[in-house]
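Re: the 107-residue chain
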Amino acid sequence: MDIYEKLTITGVYLPVNAAIQLYTLRKAKRLLTHNPEIEHLEIKLGLAERRDNHKAYRVKGSMHINGEVLNAEQDSSPDLYEAIGAVINTIEKQLAERAHQKTVTIA
């Protein structure tokens, strides 16, 4: 099973076009290098509330892996693609820490 079958991208009051889907898929593919046992990755995209009336985006990521859930959130980013990348990077760091903790525990 590859990342295409494990990834859900949802727009909350925000349309998700093909470019956003492709960018998210490309970023999410990196996560499989850390652990191919990823069960599901959900990315929710939406608009953040700001008082200064500038457009900002909120991205939430949730990954299910071996009964654990890893979460990340980027709130109030002016660039949607940057916010998606930041969430994927945060989850990637959490996966790396998780792998490191397991090797330290085993050793």
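The chain has one domain: 3-106.
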